[in-house]
Each structure stands twice: as C-alpha cells, then as structure tokens.
Protein 1
Amino acid sequence: MSKEAMRAEAERLMKEAMARKITVKQGDTRIETKCGKCGAPNRVNAKPGESRVEFTCKECGAKQKTL
Ligand SMILES: [Zn+2]
C-alpha cells in the first residue's frame, strides 16, 4: 500500500469514526483505530468518555492503546 493510499485510508477511518460518534447511543463506543505496528484497522470497544483504550491488534497481536 502506498503512503498516499494509507493516508487516504486513515482519513476515511477518521471520518467514519466521527460520523459514528454522533450517532452512537449510550453504552460502549466502538472506536476504529489503526495498529501502530502493522497499520491494520482494528475495532475497539470503549466505555463512554474513554478515548484511550488498550487493545491487541487482530493482525499482528501487538498490544497498544488507541490514540
Ligand atoms: Zn498490527
């Protein structure tokens, strides 16, 4: 994947996440994030108001926190 494509993908995910936040109801929030190691998109469940959540990448298994 080229750098441009990765940037476009990141922007798309961010827009999606923002759109989802507006429509999200009470309860767990689903955060779409990108693995810092391999760049794979990951979906993470977060408690309301929680923005940094620990997750394990589904592709490479790297443990990290969402940005
Ligand atoms: Zn990964």
Protein 2
Amino acid sequence: MNGRGIGRVLAVALAVAAPLGAGLIAGPAAQAAQVTTIYYTSSGAPDYVAQIDQGAANWNAAVSDIKLVKRSGGTVVFHETHSGGSYTNTNGHGRGDIYLDTSQVAEGNDPTRIAAHEVGHNLGLPDHYTGPCSELMSGHGPGISCKNAKPDARESAKVQANFANGFAATQAAEFHVVVY
Ligand SMILES: [Zn+2]
C-alpha cells in the first residue's frame, strides 16, 4: 500500500514537470533565435544568376532571422522578361515570382539592385520611391546612377521584425504585383 502511494506521487510530479520543461524550451529566448529559410530559384533568369546570388547574400548579411538559400523548386522564383519593367508577384511572406527586365538593365539600371529590391518585396517591404539611394526600396527613384543593392538599417530592422516569429510559416496573405 505504501509502495502504490509513492508511485502515484511520482507520476503526478512527472506530469507537472513535463509541461514546465516544454514551456522553457518555447520561451522568448528560443523564439528570438528562430531562422526562416527561404529557398530561391534563379535558373529562369540565366543572365543574372550571379547578381541574384549577390542580392540574396546582401540580405543574409543584413538580417539574421532569414536565410536565403538557392535551390531548384524554391518558393521565390526568378524569371526574365524583356519589356515593361521588373516586378514581382508576391505574398510578401517569402513566396513569389520575380521578373527581371533585360531592357531595364540595358537602360542602365543595376541588376543586383533590382534583384535585391524585388526580394525585399518578397520579405514584406513596400516601395519607397522618394527615398535616397541608400534605401533599397527606393527602387528606380534615385535614378540609374544608383547601384546600391543593400538594405539600409531601417529596412533590415523591418524584415528582422517581420520574420521574428516565422512570418513565412504563420501568415497567409494574398499575392500582389509590385514593380521596381
Ligand atoms: Zn518595388
């Protein structure tokens, strides 16, 4: 009878301990370290593979809670178009199709900046054409002399905040078209 009593007490203690342990693992510190991997596919834009890789690397260097990785079958897919301007059709949550316009590059626009800008839309950033060249999302606003392909501190912080809790996985959103 004593043995059964002790056994029951232990069972209750274990049942209480398990949820507490789980709570510690899922605490704020663990959530802050969450990294969302976003796969991109550049084979549909063969003229700009290196520029796309550089644009992705610029984002990876600026934001720690996303990681852009090149792979076939990615959720961000690059294509080329030959008129009408560069644009993306994206849900702003790490999914979308990006169209890089070869004629826009021929006019002098920097393809690395265009690629990184369109990725910015896929990471949830809107256009801000009145901004300076130091902003990635100012797009064509500063003119073709602007070659900056890196997000500024404010843009990086916005994406960092967007993905702090797994923006891509937890949010459903409609796709919309945004231009360079
Ligand atoms: Zn844009």
Protein 3
Amino acid sequence: MENFDPKELPKRALKQIRSLCRGNGAQNDAIQIKNSKEKMISCQAMTTITLEPDIKNEQKKGRHQVGQVLENIDQVQKATQEIVKNTLNNPETRKTISNDLMQRNDQGFASHGELIGADQLNQSFSYHAACQNCQGQGSATCQTCQGQRQERCNKCHGVSMISCPQCQGRGTTLGPNNQQVNCNRCGGRQQIGCILCQRTGRVACRNCRGSGASKCGSCNGTAFFTHITHLIIKIKTLFEVVRNEHPPIITSTLEQKGAKLAARKHIKIRASQIKKDDGGLAIQYNVKFPYSVMDIDINGQTSKIKVLGYKGKIIKTPDFLDHLLGTKTYSLSEIAQNGASADSSLQKLSRTRFIGEALLLTLLHKRKKAMIELKRKFPIGASKNLIQNTILDSKKAIAKITQKSRLLGIGIGIIITLIMDIIYFFLDMRPSLLSIVGNPQMMLLIDLSFIILGGFIAAKISSYMAKRPLRQALGHLITNSAEKKIKAGSSSDQWISYIASALIFLILAFIAGENSPHWLTFF
Ligand SMILES: [Zn+2]
Ligand SMILES: [Zn+2]
Ligand SMILES: [Zn+2]
Ligand SMILES: [Zn+2]
C-alpha cells in the first residue's frame, strides 16, 4: 500500500460502475471516466474512552465470603468510588483497555457511543449485618405459644377431661343379664381425665417443641445477612475526526463508515494509546488513504463521482440506474396498474437485469426482504425510491399476469369441493361416518376438517395453476433450485378458497334434510 498509485482509483471506479450497468442499458464503451483528480489524504482522528460504572446490589441470607469483605456499607461505597476514580490512572489498566480495543479488526476506529464490557475490571464487595427482624439472634418468640412454651391441649380442648371412651359418655354399659350397670372405667361419671395432657389442659407447644422460640423466618435462623455490591464497569467510546482542510464528505464518511473502512483495509490507520490533556484515555489514529473526484460519462450524460480508499470505494455517485432504467420502470408500473398484454411485455422487461433481479427476488421473498436483497445487489447508483417502487411494482405485475390462472384454479377447486360435499351429505358418507363415530359432537370436528380440506385443495390448485404463466413470462430467470422456493399463490387466494369451501359446505348442510349436522340448529 506504500507505493499505491492514486491513478488506480478511476480504473477501479469504472470497473464497478460498468458492472452495475451491465444488462441495464449502457454498453461498456458508453461509460467513460474523465477529468479525474487524485491525491493522498492524511488526517488524524481520536477515540476517547470513558468508564460507565454500573452497580448491582443483592442480599443473601447468612454470612458468605463474596468478593472483598468489608465492615459496612460506607466502606463498600468508598471502595467502589475509589475504583471508578482510579481505574484510568493505572497505566496497566489503561494498557489493557486500549489494547482490547486496538486488537479488534477496526482497531476501535470510528467507534462512537459504543458500550463495551470490561469484565476484568468488575469487582464485588460485601459486608455482613445482623438480621433486623431477630436482632441477630437467629430466633424469635414463637408465634404459636407467644413464648409460653405451652399450648392448649387439643384432645380435651383445655378442659382436662374427655368423654369416657368405654361407655361413650353414657355412664352405663350392658351387664351380663342384659341390665344397665355402671361403667367400670369412669365409675358412672361419664368422663375420665385427659390422657394426653395428664389432666393439665396444656401440652408442650408443637411449633417450638416447648422452647418458646422459633427460627427467625427472615434470616432463616442464620442471624445475619450478606449485603453484596457488584461493580460492573463498561467502557464507552467517543469518536471524532480532527478537523482538517479536507472536504466535509471525508469527515462524514470516516465517522459513519470508518469502522468498516478500517476493518476492510480501505484506509490505512496507525493506532496508539495517548494521555489526553485532562489525563483521560484515548486512542489516536493517523489515517492515510487515496481520494479522488472525477467526472463519469454514462450514455453521454456527465456527472461527478467521489472515490475513497485503496480499493476504490465509491462514496458519492448520482443515481445513474434511475436514469438508465427510467422508461423500463415506467413500463413495469404500467403493467402493475393495467396488466394489459402483460405476459409478453413483462417477459421483455425482465431481460433488463435490474428488473429481472427484482422480479425473481419478489418471487422468492417477502416484500421487505426482497428490497434489502435488491439493495445488496445494487449498493450504489439506485435511489431508495427506485428500489422500493421496483419491488412493489414487480409484486403487482406478477399478481396481474397470474390472475386468470389463479382464479381458474380456485374455480376448479370449488367444483371439486362441491362434488366432495355432495358425496358427503347426499351419498350417505356423513351418515355412515356418524354411525361409526357414534357421537354427534365428534362430527363437528370431522365437518370442520372437511371444510379445511376443501379450502386447502382449492388454494393448492390455484397456486399450481399460477406457475404456468410465471414460467412462460419469467422462466428464463428461474433456476431449478429457485423453482422449489417460489410462492406463486397469494394470501388473498387462500382466504377466498377457505371461505368458498365453508360457504358451499353450509349451503349443502342446510338443504341436506335429515342428514343436516346437529350443530346447525344453533344458527
Ligand atoms: Zn433473623
Ligand atoms: Zn411455641
Ligand atoms: Zn365410662
Ligand atoms: Zn388434655
């Protein structure tokens, strides 16, 4: 690159423009470069690096050793502030941060407002503090017995006597001579002392097992909390081209596309870490590249183009494709509107490369994707309008030339559906299905599947029929591998197919008499 001859730029630009014009209405001889002025440009640029600290707090039950363990929150805050303040003063850290950036493909050139994680700078701090809920005891007064250690006996409900289990509280039992005799357990008193609480009416609290205290629910009995602070540091970039006497388009191109230009070696940059006047960290770039302004003649029309970098990247150009394709795109939109004698003229139009590509992309992709792909094939020379309108008109034109076949396909599909439904209702198909299934409710599902099947068949036939006119008009564009991916039908065709199938089914269902579905009575 040292011995690069800037005279190369016009040659490279010419090659690119000729290749974009190929097949689009300008012969190579009709495209020529005139009045080219080249020079080498050197300038300086700088990416300033600042820190973006972020703090995330968390809390864990118990004492844990997380990161650096300090005494209290004040110490943690002080420590994090120190780190944020001192990180950029440390020469080692400055080197690590700037090297990370300079080792990227673009060497950090033109990185502006980018947030980059710097994991090696992240740190965690923690301190331990007593649980507020239990004052660091780990336990609290038992809520069940309020610290009384005992609770009411739930066998005798605190009255210390229970109904005698032997005589069921009657006081008497049946004696040997079928006479009522006093119960020998309670002696006729009908009650006996409660066995569970030994007549005290109270038992040891089951929640705290008689200790009067229970585990603190807040700290889970650990008495402490570990408060953790994670300091997460990201670096943020700010890029500027040092003002120079070069044309503004150079500054704006470097600012907007500099990263790619540097990564792909369109421009040569030498990066070095520097200390700014305010002590801040920055990467300074010495930038060098060839630049050229020239006139280009396309079919006798002269316009200016600007070319930058060792690979001859065209950074400014008139929309020459708009100009070359003017009448062709007009014809396309006429076909899109009126469709008159469309087949033959669309075939002719599709031989223009730009329009051919647009038509093929429209067959293969959704509208938005097709626009993006077309822009990728023609990155310069075509205005945004040209790209959008050509894709939109392609879609409409294709709909126009397939219209008759698609409708015919739906028509055939509807007739098939009609025949299927007649067999279903009037040739005893549904009644015999019903006798197999047995359940009239289940028949609703089968009816529904029948409607969907009819719509599916009509939509399929329609999209199959649409392929014929497509192949006639655009067959030369469609390769074998593309053939499989082409979507010839439209979503409105599908709707029409399914709705038609449902209508036919309903009409026949109504006139089917005793074979009418059960669920029709709901209507
Ligand atoms: Zn606690
Ligand atoms: Zn208790
Ligand atoms: Zn008894
Ligand atoms: Zn008791």
